[in-house]
Amino acid sequence: MPTTVAPIDEDTIQTLDRDGAVCLRGRFDRRWIELAAAGIRRNLEHPSPLFQSFSPDGGGAFHSDIWSRRHIPELETFALESPSAAIAARCLRTRKVRLLQDTWFLKSPGTQVRTPWHHDNVVLGPFCSIWVALDAIPREAALEFVRGSHRWNQLFMPESFFEKDEKALPAVEDFYSRYHGKLDLSANETFSRLPDIEAKRSDYDILSWDLEPGDCLVFHARTLHGAPGNTLAHDTRRMVTRWVDETALLAPHGGAVVERLAAEGFGVDLTIGGPIRGDLFPVIEPLA
Q: In its keyword annotation, does this UniProt entry include Hydrolase (predicted)?
């Protein structure tokens, strides 16, 4: 049964709607932090076919896996029973939510790889992510957001996706591309080129927070976000769940998601423009 949470006041919800991201303090107690950490350790020993290592040789490790709850019991319990669902339901202003995805990220000390600026755009409709810090993560190593970018009414793809040559994409962008298909962006008016935020940081209102274990970030999927490497002396681990409501649809360019999941043996029945349904995306109705 999902855990209830302390009330999230209306001002916080309005801030989320306005800015695209908020930080909630201490919403996950020690048992949830330890459970997620144990799940990540088990997952590293038993990676799924979707496991990714984004780091080049040398320079630390940057690992992630997706939908691991199917075979990692600790992650299954966290995804379905932690406060995440109740937080998502409140932030999406709905009585029940669907778990779209569970994932986690680990950057070891010395990791130079930056999570590039991007947003999540294969779902249309209400869609939020909840990132839970499992370690102390100071602002200089934490996830960052461009305030209000979810309201720009644009879909962005990295600059490298618009290149016409066959040069290899960076590891993180290559992973991102697998869920957006072989898009011909040269004549595609759906997507805009992602601005070079790092080169012109002073042009943007960038949000970030110092995080303690148990703090979480809640953000709308189309809020541009990215994260630096890890120059700290300890791992930075984040447990992530992503949530939609019953009106969310698979975007017209989301066919690659279905193909990717089918290729890896996931039993999904999704159609372009159709609602998010199926056993992989369970409905949770948190207690009031």
A: no
